[in-house]
Amino acid sequence: MAVPGVLAATPVRAGVRASAARAAAIDPDLLRRAREAFERHADQIVHKDLVAIADYGLHSSTPRFHLYEPEARRLQSFRVAHGKGSDPRHTGYLQSFSDRPGSAASSEGAYLTGEHYSGQHGASQRLVGLDAENQNAMDRAIVIHGAWYCEPSMVTNTGKLGRSEGCFAFSAADAATVLARLSPGHLLFSSRA
Q: Which of 106, 110, 172, 188 is the most exposed place for a label (fewest CB within 10 A)?
């Protein structure tokens, strides 16, 4: 591994807060694959203090987007939407990944966080796909942003979040926290356990 201790395969502690009643944990196999992605792309990763991991094997009502601090082994988890094309029947579970333009699906793989900007969803952050499975991320405008369909009331009323066009969409409060913590040059790894 490029940096000792980064993404250590030991248990993590629940962090500051989770966006649901119970604290989440990262699946060990998913953590291992995130560590492998970190090692593959270490030369492009500027900031190694924090790694984002999206576990799309979990239901959208579950905090499944993790900000993990490897050195402290601290975890902060949030609800995140997946793409419409990944869940056509809107079950709340991701059925498949796609990087095809126009698919409105979530893509799997490693991303590098890019610049912050203000767009149609307000404060947002660009993502650069680092793997063959998500190489179209920039062309598809796959970003991090807040969305009305990710507010807690959505889960209360429907039992699940709404769906994005493939972006990592959060409630307004969670998006603000995620954007504040993920400066350009961090790794975001997206997959399912």
A: 172
28 conformational bin, left if phi > 0, alpha if psi -120 to 50, beta if neither:
alpha
Query: How many beta carbons lie within 10 A of that of residue 72, not counting itself?
Result: 12
pLDDT tens digits for 117-176?
A: 999 999 999 999 999 999 999 999 999 999 999 999 999 999 999 999 999 999 999 999
Neighbours of 9 (CB within 10 A): 9
Annotate 27-95 with DSSP letters as a single string: -HHHHHHHHHHHHHTTTT----S-EEEEETTS-TTS--EEEEETTTTEEEEE----BGGG-TT--SS--
Which pTM does this prediction carry?
0.89
